[in-house]
Amino acid sequence: MLEILRYGVILAFCVSFIALCHLIVKTYLFNKKPVYAKSQSRPIKGIVYALGKGMMPWEKESAGRHLLTYLGGILYHTGIFAALFYLFLLLISHRLNSTVVLILRILMFAGIFSGMGLFLKRSTKSQLRRISCPDDFASNLMVDVFLLLALTDTYTFRFRSLFFAVAIVMFLYIPVGKIRHCFFFFYSRILFGLFYGRRGVLPQRRKQSRVNYLI
Amino acid sequence: MNKTGLPKDSYEEKIDKFDSKDVEKALRIFKERLHSDYAAFLNSCVRCGLCADSCQYYLTFRDVESIPAYKINLIAKVFKKYHTQAGKRISRWLGAEEISQVLVREWIDTLFGRCSLCGRCALNCTMGINIPYVIRTARGALAEVGLVPPGLQSTVDTAIKSGNNMGISKEDWLETVEWLEEELQQEVNDSNARLPVDARGSKFLYTINPREAMFFPLSISAVGKIFYAAQENWTFSSENFDVTNYGLYSGDDVASGEMSKRLIDSLKKLNCQILVLAECGHGYNSNRWEAPEWLSQKYDFEVKSIIQVIADYIREGRIKLDPSKNQKRTTLHDPCNLVRLGGLIEEQRYVLKQAVTQFVEMTPNKEKNYCCGGGGGQLAMTRFAERRIKVGKIKADQVLRTGAEIVATPCHNCIDQFMELNKHYKLGIEIKTISEIVADALVLNNPKKISFR
Questions:
Q1: Prior bond to A203 cis, omega within 30?
Q2: Chain A residue closest to B368 (CA)?
């Protein structure tokens, strides 16, 4: 049974990956138009900024003002990547040493904690609830359960079948709901960098002016 | 009757008549105009809501409808319903929704009435979604079914019909230029000083905001004086002189393209080399960045703001300034379309630092600056005027904190909003364009003293 589920996870991952690639290609082909206006700066600078420094809380007011949510988001996603890495190692039957397991446990624990925090925030803040749809809650919960089972699996094998089953459902759901942002995040950030990079808006050579100029 | 008990106006009646034919039309144009970039953005929003505090509508009203994520999701609902397989099948689960009269009402109130297209949210979006450009696309769909709020639509219509948004006739325009030329000659004490019109082969074709000709002629004189001092080879066009492009705000790409094309036609007809744009934020964004896309055309000429031209004059020593002529504490408002969306950030600072003795920055400034509240067509849409003034409080407070007596801003749209804010919030400030400040600081031989504004 476990072996079937193991192949099921691999298959679900492949289906998910292909579906996401299809979505990206479909989106890319949506009314593609060449760019005619002459660039003011090198777009690549904007892309590098968008995927790096541009996500830092001191660069982005929204992150700076909501530092807890920002950190929660980072920990959540780090935890997810740790769980995916752990799942991958399980699938290829790779044995882990205790230090790596400890690191993964810490990351996954922080991920679950943050994920639940974000879920609570979405559930309790009325305005956030109003901009949400059922998918927002379901996606969050699904990933939280996946994380919890991954963490549990580092202690006991007893729930491995359930862990694999949840992983299958999660992978198959990714292209359907909001978790598709795992691909679209990079797409959007690159477009963001291109836009502001071409126009010479970002990255700014000079910081926010604070000095007053008095003769 | 509407909610306030007043009789419905023709615009509201039009919304009431929104039917399946309109749905079809709106969806067609929405699909046509929905660039692949915007489709990616509509797939990306995770509704984290972190964008809320970056929007001055939200900071003012604290209501969910003002959250940028809410606004973009009004559009994403429709995108999911008609353009994604999952959205078609499990609509409620994914928040997908068919376009309807109720949704259209919300689009109008939110996308036109709660957004100045300033782009501050985009800069702060975790995913990097270009929210104002997606909103503009939805506005374009509303424009296709004739649902752009009347004030904004009539501004576009006037520009299309008469060649400029104030409906100034050619005769009136030429008369104004003639009168201003006489004033300039007196001021610089030189009967050869000119405000040339239709001078073929000039280096610059200079454009203006028609409001300058109607209400702020000294803005035109100021630029004329600067060109005179720099001994520039430039001209106005007698026919196409309007730098503004309200199609940028109504979302109508066809009208937008038509307006920008007229300027290009005049530039070609007069055999000029560079299109120089007056101090106008959205005029700069439209003609520098958007028009080549609307017209699907690579330009074989340069498009510059007058601010860049002035900065070059100072660097090259073609004009000389005496900052002691401008001793009042001066601050700078960054127009969103010029700075955050246009990339013209340092030039106006360089110019001001040469032209005044006390320059003080607002906080925040540059690309992080707050909108004055008058952008996005808000000044033209009287039905949202009350909101516009309330939203402007953030800018008014920003100005007060600087302790400045003069607010310089390279945008006539912003100037109009500032004039209202000045009155409403009793700011006690003077509002000037950069050119006016530079003109006041110009060092000329034997000029008569005239203060610009």
A1: yes
A2: A208
Alpha-carbon distance of A164 to A143, in angstroms, equals 13
Q: Is B53 in contact with A213 (Cβ distance < 8 A)?
A: no
pTM of the complete model: 0.94
Q: What is the interface pTM, i.e. ipTM, of the complex?
A: 0.94
Nearest to B257 by CA among B267, B247, B266: B247
B210 within 8 A of B164, measured Cβ to Cβ: yes
Q: Which of residues 30-49 of B touch A (CB under 8 A)?
A: 31-37, 39-41, 43-44, 46-49
Query: Given an 8 Å threshold on Cβ–Cβ distance, is B48 in contact with A69?
Result: yes
Give the model confidence (pLDDT) of B70-112 as tens digits. 999 999 999 999 999 999 999 999 999 999 999 999 999 999 9
CB atoms within 10 A of CB A30: 18
Question: Angle at the Cα of B163 (from B157 to B165), degrees rounded to 5?
Answer: 55
Tell me: pLDDT of B448 over 80.
no
User: What residues have CB less than 8 Å from B132, skipping those under 6 apart?
Assistant: B115, B117, B118, B119, B121, B122, B341, B376
B49/chain A closest Cα distance in angstroms: 7
pLDDT the model gives residue B338: 98
Q: Answer whether A27 sits within 8 Å of B39, measured CB to CB.
A: yes
The answer to whether the beta carbons of residues B331 and B398 sit under 8 Å apart is no
The pLDDT value recorded for residue B221 is: 95
Two tokens, residue A76: 């959540």
**Residue A180 structure tokens:** 């598709």
